[in-house]
Amino acid sequence: MALIYDEPSHTFNEYLLIPGYTSADCVPANVSLKTPLVKFKKGEEPAISLNIPLVSAVMQAVSNDTLGIALAKEGGLSFIFGSQSIESQANMVRRVKNHKAGFVISDSNLHPDNTLADVLELRKKTGHSTMAVTDDGSPNGKLLGIVTSRDYRLSRTARDTKVSEFMTPFDQLIVGTENTTLPEANDLIWDNKLNQLPIVDKDQHLLYIIFRKDYDSNKENPLELLDDNSKRYMVGAGINTRDYAERVPALVEAGVDVLTIDSSEGYTEWQKITLDWIREHYGDSVKVGAGNVVDAEGFRFLADAGADFVKVGIGGGSICITREQKGIGRGQATAVIEVAKARDEYYKETGIYVPICSDGGIVYDYHMTLALAMGADFIMLGRYFARFDESPSNRVRIGGNYMKEYWGEGSARARNWQRYDMGGDSKLSFEEGVDSYVPYAGSLKDNVQLSLSKIRSTMCNCGVMNIKDLQENARLTLVSATSIVEGGAHDVTLRNSDLNSNHM
Ligand code: IMP
After folding, report:
1. How far apart are CA 119 and CA 123, in angstroms?
2. DSSP character string of 312-374
3. For residue 286, which of 302, 275, 300 has the smallest C-alpha distance?
4. 197 closest CA partner among 123, 132, 137
5. In angstroms, rounded to a whole number, what is the distance separating the alpha carbons of residues 294 and 174?
6. Tell me: the pLDDT tens digits for 242-299?
7. Which atom of ligand 1 has the smallest separation from the CA of 431?
8. Whose CA is nearest to atom 10 of ligand 1?
């Protein structure tokens, strides 16, 4: 007879944390959210840690290079989506790795023969008033001058005047060189009262522009996630169990810091074969996570197969219809609790700590704290990040509200058949995800900082100042259906109904 679990499986919404003793030094400013990303041996440090426990989902609507840069600035990490060509995924990785904080690749560029009319057109298109004039009109051509709104007077300058006649020419510009650091560039900007500083190579080719207006944001990222060698932002990428022999080398060559096998169900021989291939070709130098699983058996299988971390979660994602379509999955809280126990046992037995990632199903900010308290080392989110300016999808106006598009990897729109592959044809034969909208929420930075301040504050309520202490000392209680109603505002008439919704 089949094994039937006695207990139902639970989700985050059914739990609450019970406060612990809070000492006077236990304040949000003293809370560290640093957490291991990849496995490590007892007594050793993990090769990669995150400064905040958040990673973005391996999805077309979520993780591109723009979001990757924004999240690394805050201390987390994106896994660039794999449901695109190897070349374009590797290029996204390359763009994150080549991004130097504060060093902007010029996006508004002119040819010297362009006219004032072209300047106005470009300004309308990009919204930027500073433009580089290069010999070929490209972002990295030979720099001949700069045009800003101070170089022309709309009432006096004819629209067909050539840019070369009114630009500030190169010999009157103050510029930085390849070796100029950000602090040096900022000094040059301040000492010379500049609004921008072009950076050129020894042949006068434009590399970047540094803007005075970015000065504050350049200094504001104390938790940014940088690699050890070149101090570039860290970035991850998703791979599948089909084309890894081509995809992995291209991503490694592009400078990726960590990979994850992206699959709806990870307790399979395909994952072991993929991990074996990576170990055979790269040893431990390439870090790779695996998943997703929802029980101890699946965790142990992937840990034994050499995964650097294990992702947990089937069917709980906001756009996911796997449970409806196939009847597989498990309540996310129960899955995390069981896998966390298995991780701790594995650590006791082998001395190897394999971090686990709770993937999907976060609806409220406090669910993040619950996931960590239940034993997750970090959390993967899709819907949460899809709402921000930096996600790749379109912002649209619906019924007077701004929304962002958000679609599942198993939807007909993404056609990521490799993620749902159980060894059949190279196609998606039925959908496991939907195409949807989520409310637009503004910048990643503002939202992530708000979520983290809630996590830190709750951790102080529990009397803990780091994630390990939270995992070891938190006390959680299941709540009844009636007390869930009591958890929101109740028995009052709200003056502002927006406040009723604490949804992120
Ligand atoms: P969310 O944060 O609740 O939106 O969940 C995001 C997670 O859902 C991703 O990290 C994936 O694990 C999972 N996912 C992505 N696309 C699909 C899909 O089409 N069907 C089912 N699960 C998906």
Report:
1. 6
2. E-SS-STTB-HHHHH-----HHHHHHHHHHHHHHHHHHHSEE--EEEES---SHHHHHHHHHT
3. 275
4. 132
5. 58
6. 999 999 999 999 999 999 999 999 999 999 999 999 999 999 999 999 999 999 999 9
7. 19
8. 57
- The beta-strand segments (E) located in 57-122 are 77-80, 109-110
Residue 490: partners with Cβ closer than 8 Å, 6 or more residues away: none
Burial class (CB in 10 A: 0-12, 13-18, 19+), 153: exposed
- Calculate what percentage of the chain has a pLDDT beyond 90: 80
Q: Please provide the distance, in angstroms rounded to a whole number, between the alpha carbons at the two ends of the chain.
A: 43
Q: Read off the pLDDT band of 502 (50, 70, 90).
A: very low
Helix, strand or coil, per DSSP, at residue 479: coil
Read off the DSSP letter of residue 142.
B
Q: Hey, which residues does 401 pair with through a beta bridge?
A: 398
Backbone angles phi and psi of 41, in degrees to 5: -90, 150
Which residues are 121's β-sheet partners? Answer: none
Residue 320 falls in the annotated catalytic set: yes
C-alpha 232 – ligand 1 centre gap (Å): 28
Q: Mean per-residue pLDDT for 188-211?
A: 94
- Catalytic residue check, 419: yes
Q: What type of residue sits at position 317?
A: G
Give the amino acid at 90: A
Q: Ligand 1 centre and the CA of 306: distance in Å?
A: 24
Q: For tokens 């057109």, what's the residue?
A: 121
**Contact (Cβ atoms closer than 8 angstroms) between residue 288 and residue 308:** yes
Which residue's CA lies nearest to atom 22 of ligand 1?
A: 320
Residue 375 has pLDDT above 60, yes or no: yes
The model's pLDDT over 109-125, given as tens digits with 9 standing for 90+, comes to: 999 999 999 999 999 88
DSSP state of 110: E
> Among the options 357, 419, 460, 462, which is catalytic?
419
How far, in Å, is the centroid of ligand 1 from the Cα of 418? 14
Higher pLDDT, 350 or 154: 350
Beta strands at 401-407 and 435-439: parallel, antiparallel or unpaired = antiparallel
The secondary structure of 251-297 as a DSSP string is HHHHT-SEEEE--S---SHHHHHHHHHHHHHHTTSS-EEEEEE-SHH
Mutate to test the pocket of ligand 1, among 264, 293, 357, 362 (most ligand atoms within 8 A of CB): 264
**What is the residue whose two structure tokens read 């991780």?**
343
The string of pLDDT tens digits covering residues 312-359 is 999 999 989 888 889 999 999 999 999 999 999 999 999 999 999 999
How many angstroms is it from 350 CA to the middle of ligand 1? 32
Residue type, 117: A
Closest CA to 164 of 107, 209, 119, 211: 119
Q: Cis peptide before 401, with omega less than 30 degrees from 0?
A: no
- The whole-angstrom separation of Cα 110 and Cα 122 is 9
Q: Tokens at residue 127, please?
A: 């919204």
